[in-house]
Design a protein that fits this description.
The protein is mostly helical. Helices cover about 70% and strands about 0% of the residues. The radius of gyration is 11 Å and the shape is globular. The termini are far apart.
């Protein structure tokens, strides 16, 4: 549901929607549902609005890259970052 809202929201509203992930990116990247929110945010928002996501991913890049959901988030960063 949040992914769909991100798709139709303007940049400011979308950034506010994903702000709750600040400090929780590691856990969200490992979540069966929240990883999709991270992916959509990376795809839809300008880099300056999702830089906190990338910074938090870089705290444990190898753990996230080897995780079945986390690796998808890393792929979106490579594609769109």
């Amino acid at each position: 549901a949040i992914q769909k809202a991100l798709h139709v929201a303007d940049s400011q509203s979308a950034a506010q929607m994903v702000a709750w992930l600040r400090g929780k990116v590691y856990d969200a990247s490992m979540s069966v549902n929240a990883n999709h929110v991270l992916q959509k945010a990376i795809q839809m928002l300008p880099l300056r609005k999702v830089s906190f996501i990338i910074e938090e991913l870089m705290a444990s890049p190898s753990d996230i890259a080897r995780h079945e959901y986390g690796c998808r988030v890393i792929c979106r960063v490579v594609e769109h970052g």
